[in-house]
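Support request from a user on the community tier.

User writes: "When I paste my structure tokens into the form, the page sometimes reloads and wipes my input. The last time it worked, I copied everything first. Here is what I submitted, just in case something in the input itself triggers the reload:"
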């Protein structure tokens, strides 16, 4: 495997050198046709990724209803599996944080971590109705809350199950149900909006290319690099904190979610097998073979760095945090290319607020 990776890197480096030698000089005004790009983004990325996520959320609701009706260990295990599957497909769908998704704080309501456990416990101990629509409850719902309610209440299946069969069982089931149903409700809102109107609007307005690119870079930098790696690795604070990783109560699944998000941003740049246009193809059409080769090489190096991490990122932080920081630096190399080199070539204004470490 190591030999194969080395060969791939050498091949990419050779391509990079050759591309730089015969790369066309960029034109004074690198105008590209945004409409075909937007059509491909909507049809080959956004709609199918939301559709896949929505199907998994529907399965999650069904599994939750089955568990609440019949509190067995088998149904608990099944519910965990459908939760993890939905959390995994969310990694791709969650990167489109604009339009209605931004208006209803779709990503933040579904995946603000670390979880505010205190507020979740208040939901359980309080006799008042839990209103998850309030912004102060943003960090006490979504997938992190499900993670806690399914994995964090006890060390074994039987210990967790005791909370759903004991004296306060109805309260725990009510909180679990509200958290899952809110994910389903928010997902339905976004999916319906895309399928009834927004997809057509986006595909017909070239100005969305700039918005989508900025949204992509922001997700890459803040959701992928910072939230998943920087913060638990203590990049800016200088204090590593293994407790704030994603999937904190099932840490052995944390790298899986990280890699899934990484793969989705790489595919978004390269395009799918059905894509006739992509950000990569746009650069190539403008004679930027060298820049495209550099980006592809950095994606490969970032993949190697992520695969070197322990499946349990909490363990990685605690035993060898240098590998977390190395993975962070590999992702940062891509952030720099996207925020500086690509925007210069495509003449896209960066509108996101600058972030630490750029």
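"...and here is what came back when it finally went through:"
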């Amino acid at each position: 495997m190591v030999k194969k990776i080395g060969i791939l890197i050498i091949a990419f480096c050779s391509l990079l050198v050759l591309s730089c030698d015969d790369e066309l000089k960029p034109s004074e005004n690198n105008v590209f046709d945004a409409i075909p790009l937007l059509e491909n983004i909507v049809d080959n990325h956004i709609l199918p990724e939301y559709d896949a996520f929505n199907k998994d959320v529907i399965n999650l609701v069904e599994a939750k209803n089955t568990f609440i009706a019949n509190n067995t260990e088998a149904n608990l295990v099944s519910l965990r599996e459908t939760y993890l599957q939905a959390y995994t497909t969310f990694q791709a769908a969650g990167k489109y944080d604009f339009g209605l998704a931004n208006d209803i704080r779709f990503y933040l309501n579904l995946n603000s971590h670390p979880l505010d456990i205190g507020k979740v416990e208040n939901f359980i101990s309080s006799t008042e109705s839990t209103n998850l629509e309030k912004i102060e409850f943003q960090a006490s719902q979504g997938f992190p809350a499900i993670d806690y309610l399914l994995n964090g209440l006890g060390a074994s299946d039987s210990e967790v199950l005791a909370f759903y069969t004991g004296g306060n069982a109805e309260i725990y089931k009510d909180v679990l149900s509200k958290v899952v149903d809110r994910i389903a409700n928010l997902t339905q809102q976004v999916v319906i909006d895309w399928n009834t109107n927004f997809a057509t609007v986006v595909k017909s307005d070239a100005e969305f290319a700039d918005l989508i690119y900025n949204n992509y870079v922001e997700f890459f930098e803040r959701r992928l690099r910072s939230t998943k790696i920087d913060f638990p690795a203590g990049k800016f604070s200088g204090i590593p904190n293994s407790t704030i990783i994603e999937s904190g109560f099932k840490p052995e699944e944390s790298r899986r979610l990280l890699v899934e998000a990484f793969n989705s941003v790489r595919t978004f740049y390269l395009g799918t097998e059905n894509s006739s246009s992509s950000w990569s193809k746009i650069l190539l059409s403008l004679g930027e073979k060298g820049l495209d080769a550099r980006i592809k090489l950095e994606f490969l190096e970032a993949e190697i760095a992520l695969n070197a991490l322990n499946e349990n990122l909490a363990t990685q932080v605690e035993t060898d945090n240098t590998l977390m920081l190395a993975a962070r630096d590999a992702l940062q190399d891509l952030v720099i290319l996207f925020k500086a080199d690509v925007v210069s070539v495509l003449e896209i204004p960066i509108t996101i607020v600058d972030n630490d470490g750029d």
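Agent notes: The reload is a front-end session timeout and is unrelated to the input. The CA atoms of residues 107 and 333 lie 25 Å apart. The domain at 1-30+207-358 is CATH 1.20.1420.20 (A middle domain of Talin 1). Escalated to web team.
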